[in-house]
């Protein structure tokens, strides 16, 4: 006789299952046009709603609480807003974990692919810094999610900014390398405002694809960032 499949009791592993399960559900809802999503804001709203619903199902004990909040300022004095913060709290033990999530939604109509790539790196860098903050012991990992219909984010660029600030499928962000590009006005202005990005760990762009037809694709990216460990 086989044993019934058990859900993870460990809160950190369960949070990971919740977010991954919610992502699969949301991606399929997006593919099937359950929501009208043309900007990042509705992406954020509906994905957070799915996480909340799945999280409540995954609460196994009476005194467990899963909360999902939007636009949470993690910087206290300096504004550092995270798109989604998923939190777990066990009342009797005071055990608490929080998972920060950053999102990007980029389309062909928006164009400005160089800015889009720079913004992705900025979000990833902010997430890594947040997770590596010694005061954030209750944050074991974080996630970056992106949806686009634009193949230029998925394919290698032959020239220009995205040869350095690369987001193509299979590209791995290097550790201990300063990412900056000042040979164009876009890159120079972005560098002057935000500086360069030097990551402590490596992160790989591993895109997933759904083909509506030969001229219409949706590309989905999920990247997990761990506290103090290379991926």
Describe the overall structure.
- The protein has helices at residues 11-31, 40-57, 113-131, 185-194, and strands at residues 64-73, 81-90, 95-106, 141-148, 172-173, 178-179, 197-198, 203-204, 207-213, 216-226.
- The model has no long low-confidence stretch (mean pLDDT 92).
- Helices cover 29% and strands 29% of the residues.
- Strands 1-2-3-4-10-9 form a 6-stranded mixed beta sheet, sandwiched between helices.
- Helix 3 (113-131) packs parallel to helix 4.
- The chain has one domain (11-226).
What distinguishing features does this structure have?
231 residues, alpha+beta, 6-stranded mixed beta sheet, two-stranded antiparallel ribbon, 29% helix
Q: Major β-sheet, in short?
A: 6 strands, mixed
Which overall shape is indicated by the principal axes computed on the Cα atoms?
Answer: globular
Oligomer: single chain
How many separate structural domains?
1
- Sheet-strand content, in percent, reads 25-35%
Distance between the termini: 38 Å
pLDDT averaged residue by residue: 92
Order of helices and strands: HHEEEHEEEHEEEE
Structural class: alpha+beta
Q: Give the radius of gyration.
A: 18 Å
Share of residues in helices? 25-40%
- Widest sheet, order of strands: 1-2-3-4-10-9
The low-confidence parts are: none
Count of DSSP strands: 10
**How many helices?**
4
């Amino acid at each position: 006789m086989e044993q019934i499949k058990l859900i993870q009791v460990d809160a950190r592993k369960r949070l990971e299952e919740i977010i991954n399960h919610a992502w699969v559900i949301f991606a399929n809802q997006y593919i099937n046009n359950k929501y009208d999503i043309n900007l990042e804001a509705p992406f954020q709203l509906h994905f957070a709603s799915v996480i909340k619903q799945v999280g409540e199902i995954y609460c196994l004990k009476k005194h467990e609480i899963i909360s999902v909040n939007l636009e949470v300022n993690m910087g206290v004095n300096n504004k550092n807003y995270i798109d989604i913060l998923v939190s777990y709290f066990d009342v009797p033990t005071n055990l608490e974990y929080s998972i920060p999530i950053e999102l990007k939604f980029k389309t062909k109509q928006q164009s400005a692919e160089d800015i889009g790539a720079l913004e992705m790196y900025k979000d990833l860098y902010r997430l890594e810094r947040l997770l590596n903050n010694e005061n954030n012991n209750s944050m074991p990992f974080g996630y970056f999610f992106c949806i686009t219909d634009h193949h230029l984010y998925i394919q290698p660029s032959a020239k220009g900014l995205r040869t350095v600030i690369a987001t193509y499928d299979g590209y791995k962000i290097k550790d201990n390398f300063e990412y900056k590009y000042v040979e164009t006005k876009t890159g120079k202005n972005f560098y002057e405002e935000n500086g360069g990005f030097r990551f402590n760990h490596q992160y790989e762009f591993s895109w997933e694809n759904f083909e509506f037809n030969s001229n219409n694709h949706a590309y989905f990216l999920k990247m997990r960032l761990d506290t103090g460990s290379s991926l």
